[in-house]
Amino acid sequence: MMNLYFFILKYYVCNICKKLYCMLLLVGIAILLCSCSNKNAVTDAELTVIDFSISDENQFIADLGDIYSSCQDMKCKTEEEKLNQTRIVIESMGSKGYIAVDVENQINMANAENAEIFLSEVAENRDAGCTILQVMYDKSFVRFDFKSGGNNVMITRRFYVWENNCFVEKNEENYKAYTWKYTDGYLFFERYRMGGYDGDSAYTALRVEPLDEKLRVLNRKYIKTIGYDSNNLFTTNWDESDMNRINYYDIYEALYKMKYGVSSPYSEEGVTYMIEEELYEKVFQEYLPVSTDVLQHVNVYDVSRQMYQYRTRGMFDHSVTPLVPFPEVVDAEHNADGTITLIVNAVSEKDESGRLFTHKVTIKEKENDGFEYVSNDVLTMGKEGIYWYRDRLSDKEWQEHYGDKTITINQNGNVIDDSLLSDDEMENVKVNIIGILQSDAIRKLYEDEDISDNSDLIYGAVDILGNSGLMCFSDDTNMYNYQLFQSFYRKYTDGGGRDYICVYRVNRDASVTEMTFVYDDSRIQMIFNTAKFENHDWKFIATGIRDLKDMKLTQKGYFIYTYSNIIAHGGLKEYFRVSPLTDECRELTRKYVYGLSYVNYNMLVIDWDESNASDILVPCMFDDIYRLYTGENLKPDGGWIDADKYESVMLSMFPVTVTELRDKCDYNPEKDSYRYHVILGKQYPPFGEVVDYSYNDDGTVSLIVDAVWADEGSDIAFRNTLTVKPEEDGTFKYMSNHIEKMECDIPVYSD
C-alpha cells in the first residue's frame, strides 16, 4: 500500500514538474521571440526612411509621355487655356502618385500631403527623400529631387522638354540648399550664387498647402494682372476720397491691356507720347473712381492741346530687381453694399516669406463682367518696405537719356505726325499687313504650331510670306526677294526723289514686324508696325515712326541704318542682312563661331597656334566655350567648376595642357576646382560670321570669318582665318587663329 502511495505521488510530482518545465520553456521561447521581435522592430524603425523619390526612371518617363501625349493636341492660345491644360497635367501626375505643382503656383499641389510628410522629416533633421515636379506652361517641367541628412538638403534639378513625342532631359544641376524654409504654406529654397551673377534666379518658391480655387480666381481677375512690379496701386493707402497717391503712369499699360485685351501700342522706350484726353482718361476711369480733375492734376497735362504726356518705363527706371513679390488672395468678404473686400498676401521668393506684406483691396463689380477698384489699405509691411520700386525719370534725366522724340496720338488712336507717307499710304500699309497675316496659310500655321516652341513656326512663316512675293526674313534666315530691296537702295543712291519699300521680319517670339523705309529729297524714315497672334487673332502691339540719320547697303549685303534720336542703351546703329549667306556658312557659323567674343577675351583678336595656344587662356572664356561644346548654358555649383569637367572641355577644345590650364584659369588645388568667372558683357560688340571655308589635307577646316560691327558701320571690320579640327564623335578642337585688320581697328583685350 505504501509503495502504491509513493508511486502515485511520484507520478503527480513528475507530471507537475513536466508541466512547469513546459510552461517555463514556452514562456522562455515567448520572451525570446518577443525580445527578437522588439529588437527587429527597433532596427526597422532605425532603418525606415521616408522617401517619396522617383525610383523607376523608365516608368517615370513613360508615365509623363502618356500624360502629355493625351493633351498635346490642345491648342493653348489664351492664358486661361494654358492654365486649364496645366491643371489637367498636374492632376494626371497626381493620379500616378507624383508630387506636382505649376511654376506660377496657381494650381494646388498634387499629393501635397506626401510633400508635407517629407518636410516634417527635414524639420526633425532626419534622413528623407522626395521628388517634386514643377510644371511649366509650355510642355516642359523641372524635376527637383531632394535628399535630407546631416542638417543639409541636397538638390538635383533636372529640366525636361517635350520633343518628338517624348521628354528629353536638357540639363542637370546638383547643389546643396543654401537656404531652406517651410513657412506660410510655401517651401522656399535658394541656390548659392556668387556676387555679380546675372543668370537665372537662385530662389525657388513652391506652394505646398492648398488654396481655395475661388480665391485663386479672384486673384487672377483683380490683383495678379497688375501685381507689385513698378507701380504703387497696391502698396499705398488710397480710397475714393484721396486718389492723388496713385502713380497713374505706372498702371496705364496694365489697365490698357485689361480694357482692350492687347498690349498698349504706346510703349516704345524713349518716346514721349502726347495722347488726347478722352483716349487717355477712359482707360483709368474704366477701373478707378478717379475724376478728370485728379488725372489732370497728377499727370502732365497740356491744357492748350487737351493732351496728356505719357512715357513708358525703360532701361533706366525699371525695377531694381527682377525678384518682385507676387500677390495671393487668401480671404474674401462680400459686403452689404455689393462690394468685395479681398485680403491679399505678398509672396516673396527672395525674402522667403508668404506674407511679406498684407493689404486689403475693395472691388465693386459692374455690368458685363466689369469692375472698379474702390480702395486699398496696407495692413502690414516688411521692414525693408517696397525696396524693388524705382521712381520714374525726371524731365532732365529723360532728356539726357532719350532726347525729345515725340509721337502725338489722337482720340481714335491714330498717329498725328509728319510722316513721309500720306494718310492713304499709311492706311494702305496697315490694310496690307492685316490682309497678309489673315491669309489662310498664315492663320493655319499659327493655329497649328506651338508658339511657345516656335523655331518651326518662325521658319514656316518666313517661307509663306517670302513665297508670296514679300521681302521677309528672320534673324537666322536669308531674306526672300532681296533683289527688290537692292533695287530700292539703288534708286535712293541715284537720287530718285521719293520712294518707299516694305520689309517683313518674323521675330523670336513669332510676332511679325513690318518695316517701311521711305525717303524723299531731304529726309529718311522708318515706320514700323508689329502684330502678334493672340486669342486666335492678329493684334497690333506696337507702331511708330523713327526719323533716320543715315542708311547704307554695304557691298557685302548688310543694311545698316541710324536713328536720328538714339536710345542711350541701344545700339548706335540698327542692321539686318539683305544679301544671302549660304546654308553651309550659316551652319559653320552656328557650330564653330556663334557666341565667341572679340572683346571679353583674346581668342579671336591675336594670332595663335599650337605653339602658343596658352596665350589665349583666361578664366572667363569657359562660359562661352562650354556652351559651344555642350549646347547648354553653364551652371556652376556654388561658384566653382569641378576640375574634371573644366579640363575635359578645355582640353577637347584647345591644344593646351592641364598645367597651362591650372596656371592661367584660377585653379584651386584644395577644392580641385576652377573658380567661376562671370563674363561682364560689352554693349553690342562685333560678332563673327563664316563667309568662306576650305577643307585641308590634315583633316582640319579653315574658316574665313568676317567680323560684323554694326555700331562702327562695318560688316567686315576685320577678318579671321580660324582653323578647327572636327572629331569623329562630333566634337572639335580649335587649332589656330589669324586676324587681319580690314575696315576697323582690332580690339585690344585687357584682363
Quickly describe the structure.
The protein is an alpha+beta fold and 751 residues long.
Overview of the structural elements:
The structure is a single chain. By secondary structure, this protein is of the alpha+beta class. The protein folds into four domains: about 50-210, no CATH class; about 215-380, no CATH class; about 420-575, no CATH class; about 585-740, no CATH class. About 30% of the residues lie in helices and about 30% in strands. It contains 17 helices and 32 strands. It has a seven-stranded mixed β-sheet, sandwiched between helices. Strands 1, 2, 3, 4, 5 and 6 form a six-stranded mixed β-sheet that branches. Strand 15 (about 360-365) and strand 16 (about 370-380) form a beta hairpin. The longest helix is centred in the N-terminal third of the chain and has 46 residues, at about 1-45. It is globular. The N and C termini lie far apart (about 120 Å). About 30% of the residues are buried. Residues about 1-45 have low confidence and may be disordered.
Write the layout of secondary structure elements.
Layout: H1 2-47, E1 50-52, H2 57-69, H3 79-95, E2 99-102, H4 112-123, E3 128-135, E4 140-149, E5 152-163, E6 166-176, E7 179-183, E8 186-190, E9 203-207, H5 213-223, H6 248-260, E10 272-276, H7 277-285, H8 292-298, E11 301-302, E12 307-310, E13 326-334, E14 339-347, E15 358-365, E16 371-380, H9 395-402, E17 406-409, E18 415-416, H10 423-437, H11 440-448, H12 455-467, E19 471-473, H13 482-493, E20 499-506, E21 512-519, E22 524-534, E23 537-553, E24 558-563, E25 574-577, H14 583-593, H15 622-630, E26 640-642, H16 643-653, H17 658-664, E27 667-668, E28 673-675, E29 687-695, E30 701-708, E31 718-726, E32 732-741
Parallel strand pairs: 1-3, 2-3, 10-17, 19-20
Antiparallel strand pairs: 3-4, 4-5, 5-6, 7-8, 8-9, 10-12, 11-12, 13-14, 14-15, 15-16, 17-18, 20-21, 21-22, 22-23, 23-24, 24-25, 26-28, 27-28, 29-30, 30-31, 31-32
Helix pairs in contact: 11-12, 15-16
